[in-house]
Each structure stands twice: as C-alpha cells, then as structure tokens.
Amino acid sequence: MEENSVHNNTISSRLVITMVILRFWLGGLFAYTGIQKIFHIVKFKDLIANYEILPYWMINITAIILPWLEFWVGIFIIAGIFVRASTIIQISLLLIFVATISFNIARGLDFSCGCFSEANTASGMNYQHIIFNMSLVVMASLLYFLERRRFSHSRTKISVQ
User: What is the pLDDT of residues 74-86, one digit of tens each?
Assistant: First the structure.
C-alpha cells in the first residue's frame, strides 16, 4: 500500500512540475510579446494594417487592446491566477493568429507578423510560424486540462519521499 502512495506522489509531483514549466513558458512568451508590442505600438499598428483584414477603424483599437491582453494573459498564467480562463483566451488568440497568417500566406503576402523581432524565423509569414503557434496551442491545451484550480498556488501539496 505504501509503495502505491509513493508512486502517486511521484506522478503528482511530476504533473506539478510540468504545469509550472508550461505556465512559465506560455505565460512568459505572451508577457514578452505583449511588452514588445506595447513599447513599439506605432510599428505594431502598421503591421496590423499590413494584414489587410480589419476595417480601418479597428486597426488602432486592436493595436491598443491586443498587446495589453497578451501581456495580462501571460502574467495571469505565470502567477497562477485564473489559469484555465487565461489559457482559453491564449488558445483563442493563437488560433486567430494561425488563421490570419494562413490567410496571408494563401494571398501571397509576405511581411513580419509582429510577434517577435523581425530577424526571428517565427516572425515571418511561413509554415514554420504556423507549426510553432500550433505547438503552443497543444501546450496551452495540455495546461488547461492539467490545471483544475482557480488559483494554482492554493492547496498545492508536493510530498516527495
């Protein structure tokens, strides 16, 4: 009986470690990209206009709201606050990004997407970017299904024997 509890504790501690790693990776990535867009908001607005998807009147609103949404979703995921709700927003945003990048690849447009610095492979309109975003969707989905509490730091018991 005692051997079974040690096995369960090992599994639960591995899940907690996996959740923490996913939270810091996914949250940190979104917080970082959000900050980059906030500090370069005019450039980000121009990139949104390059997509040629939104009506003109929505470009400025999107350029103001989207970076802050990304930033706060990232911070909430890192802090372990409303992780499941934040991952739903994160997955939704990632799927929208995949759809818009795919749409522009199909139209033959090629410019920096605005996610990272322009020199980064993950910033262009290419299939590697779509694969990268879909891998983030898989990781965020995994975090969503692993996380069952409203606040990740509450009632966390790791007992290693």
Answer: 999 999 999 999 9
Q: What whole-number distance in Å separates Cα of residue 62 and Cα of residue 58?
A: 6
| Domain count within the chain | 1
**Quick check: is 72 in a domain?**
yes
Judge whether 160 lies within some domain: no
Residue 117 lies in a domain: yes
Per the structure, the complete domain to which residue 91 belongs is given by 2-146
Closest alpha carbon to 19 in 135, 133, 140, 161: 140
Statement: residue 28 has pLDDT above 70:
yes
pTM of the entire predicted model? 0.81
Asked if residue 35 lies in contact with residue 86, where contact means CB atoms within 8 angstroms, the answer is no
Question: What is residue 158's predicted lDDT score, i.e. its pLDDT?
Answer: 44
- Which token pair is 104? 């522009």
